[in-house]
C-alpha cells in the first residue's frame, strides 16, 4: 500500500508551533482563572496561543475541522474528513509554575487516525515530529521506542493511581519504577525516544492530550491503546479515550497484567492524571 505524503501538513504544524512559542514565553505572570465545573486552571496565554493557531491553521486548511482544549466544541467537526486536534499549552499547571515541562501539541487526524503530529517544548528546545508511515524524529534525528520487556528493569510514567493494586490482576502490581511528567504529550514522546519504557493513565483522557504524542510513539515503533487494549481513535463525538496504556515492547507485557474489569475513576476535566507524587 503506497505511503501518502503528509509532509505538507507536518510542515504547517511545525511552523505554527514555532510561532506559538514566543507568544507563550512572553507572558511573565499571565492572568489565571478556573474553568467552569472544576475544569482546572486556564490562563490568558492558553487563549492567546489557541486564537493564533486557529486563525493560522484555519486559513491554511479551511476545509479541516477543529478540536482544541481551549475552544468550545462544535458538532461541525464530526463532518470533517480531516481535523486539527490541538492542545495550545499541554501542561498549563507546569507552565504557571515556571517549569520547562509544558508543550505545544498539534496533530491532524484523517477519518479518526492521526496522520501528522508535532510536539514542541520551547523551554527545553525539543521538537518531536511524525507523519503516518514516515517515522518519528526528535530535533530532526530518528528515534525508536524501548525494547525492554522485563518490568523489573523498566520505568513507567504515571500517577500514583496507576500503581493501585485494584487496577492489576490479582492485585499484583508489576515491579516497575514509577516516574511522572506533567504533560501527557511529552510523556508519549519520552517513550518514543526510549527515555522511559511505558506510560499508563487510568482516568478518561482527552484526545488533545494524546493525539500528537500517540503518532510520534507508534511511528517510533511503540504502541498506544486505551487501558483495555483497544486502539485509539480520534474525532469521536465525546473526545476522550478510556485511559491510555503506551510503551515500547513492554506494552504487551503490561496489558496482559492489567485488570480490565473495574471501571476507571470518574472523568476529571481539569487533569486526567492529577496525582504527581
UniProtKB/TrEMBL annotation:
Q: What keyword terms does UniProt attach to this protein?
A: Magnesium, Metal-binding
Q: Where does Mg(2+) 2 bind?
A: 90
Q: Does the keyword Metal-binding apply?
A: yes
Q: Which Gene3D superfamilies match?
A: 3.40.190.80, Fructose-1,6-Bisphosphatase, subunit A, domain 1 (3.30.540.10)
The reply to whether Magnesium figures as a keyword in the UniProt entry is yes
What top-level branch of life does the organism fall under?
Answer: Bacteria
Q: Which InterPro entries match?
A: Inositol_monophosphatase-like (IPR000760), Inositol_monophosphatase_CS (IPR020550)
Q: Which is one GO molecular function term here? A: metal ion binding
Q: Which cofactor does it need?
A: Mg(2+)
Binding locations of Mg(2+) 1: 69, 87, 89, 209
The UniProt entry, under Pfam families, shows: Inositol_P (PF00459)
Q: GO biological process: what's one of them?
A: signal transduction
Family (UniProt): Belongs to the inositol monophosphatase superfamily.
Q: In its UniProt entry, what is this protein called?
A: 3'(2'),5'-bisphosphate nucleotidase CysQ
Q: Organism source for this protein?
A: Limimaricola cinnabarinus
Recall the taxonomic lineage recorded for the source organism.
Answer: Bacteria, Pseudomonadati, Pseudomonadota, Alphaproteobacteria, Rhodobacterales
